[in-house]
Amino acid sequence: MAERLASSHQTPINQIGREDLTRNIIFTRRSTVRKLPKSRHIITPSEKGKRKRTESASPKRGTKETDYDEMVGKTWRVFKASLLYNFNLASARKYGRLLKTDLEAELKKGVTLGMETASSCKVSFAGYGNKPNNSGAKEAVKISVLSVRRAASKQEGKEIATVIVSRFTHTAMLTDSASDAFTCLPIILAKGPITIIRQIIAWMQAQFDCTIYSMRFSQQQLSWMVAMWSGILPEKGNPKSVQLVYSVPEVNGLDKLTLDINPHDCQRLWQSIHTDPENQYFEEAEVQKFMQNLELHIFQHFRIHLTRLSLSSIGTPIVSAGAEGKIKMYVNEFVPSVLRHLSDLALEEYPALEDL
């Protein structure tokens, strides 16, 4: 089993919102933190139709393999998970019964879990997403929790929480299981009251002997996101502005600075930097050049040194993200691309699976 070493960089889910935070991270034996890549994979509209079907790419325009509408336009909390022990989607019904029993035990103790009027709940586990590489394995697992109360001899159900445990990734390191007993599902997206999300994740940690942490995005990671995706505009509708939000230190009456930039202007800047439309990778040097050009533009017009401020959230036409670990996706067809990027960020902190 994985050895657990103390670290000061991650926050366990059961400590969210508390002053005295316990900070741990999971590493396996002989593990080291992976070096950050000098380039990252991007999906642009022009290349989507050109990629081979055997690649784990997002669906082509006009296909109906999977509808991600339910993930669009909603704010999701992002978590990352260590390897799940003895997880098997074939046991989904059993997992649903076990989680239902756990949640109802908390309800009987008087814990509302965001279900104030509920006397019971219903839980479902199901595969979600496409089947990458025709492997037969879904790209994600969806957990839904519905509150149930009896009224006029009928049961009424309302969805309270949704948790999506994802295996979307660009890396070749993932198979259906990291070993015979371990499954790699590195990213968790959760929506709903934080009390029930905590309980669901606490149950997962106990059931699958894993550790789950809130994911935080550094300034560097936010810079990568805005630089990579500012040049990608949806085909339909008016694209959202590119937005940069900076925290402002020690200024009375001002705690943040918000910059809204025309998406078409950003796209022209992006295209002048990422000059090869067939190149599926965005380089670190391109990120630096993109951000430096934006910073120079702001300084020339407003005499504001953005380099002295802290980037706290970003927005692009396809996704917005905050340093606190929340994201919102806006375009159905780019949902898999965003989730693959999040998975890659989580996996960069993992050891190589061959070290297990």
Protein described:
This protein has 356 residues and is of the alpha+beta class. Helix content is 25%, strand content 26%. It contains seven helices and 18 strands. Strands 2, 5, 7, 8, 9, 11, 12, 13, 14, 16, 17 and 18 form a twelve-stranded antiparallel beta sheet that branches. α4 crosses α6. The longest helix has 19 residues.
Can you describe this structure in just a few lines?
With 356 residues, the protein is an alpha+beta fold. It has helices at residues 45-48, 92-108, 194-208, 219-229, 263-273, 284-302, 335-347; strands at 4-6, 11-12, 24-26, 39-41, 75-81, 84-85, 120-128, 140-151, 154-166, 182-183, 187-191, 212-214, 242-247, 256-261, 281-283, 310-315, 319-322, 326-329. Mean pLDDT is 78; it is low at 1-33, 44-65, 171-178 and 352-356.
